[in-house]
Amino acid sequence: MHKEPEPFTASGLPGIAFATLPTTGETIAIRHGERIYYRVGTTKTADELNAMYGVSPAQAAAMLESMLSGWKTPVVNSGG
Predict the structure, then answer these.
(1) Where are the alpha helices (DSSP H) in 1-80?
(2) What is the rounded distance in angstroms from the CA atom of residue 54 to the CA atom of residue 37?
(3) Among 8-17, 23-32, 35-44, 53-62, which is the least confidently predicted range?
């Protein structure tokens, strides 16, 4: 199943990205600008989901870092 990519924001980050919580190993979804994450009930990994949505590893890492910092720290998009 192929998903259409989420629109990218003015910062070059995607509207949504996926990550793995280090504490639990579960896959989460991060929406740009939101200070919370969403648990994802799937057997796919965060990397697989990001690939489906056209999100690079650098973008996913930037989204996770930004969410954890409360979106206060500007993040440089190093991978389009």
Answers:
(1) 46-53, 57-68
(2) 19
(3) 8-17
What is the C-alpha to C-alpha distance for residues 63 and 68, in angstroms, rounded to an integer? 9
β partners of residue 59: none
pLDDT of residue 30: 95
Q: Which residues pair with 39 in a beta bridge?
A: 28
Q: Which has the higher per-residue pLDDT, 77 or 68?
A: 68
Tokens of 6: 């989420």
Q: Considering Cα of 41, then 61, then 49, then 32, what sign does the dihedral take?
A: positive
Whole-angstrom distance, CA of residue 49 vs CA of residue 14: 13
For the chain, give every domain's residue range.
Answer: 16-68
Residues 39-50 as b/e (b if ≥16 CB within 10 A, e otherwise) read eeeeeeebeebb
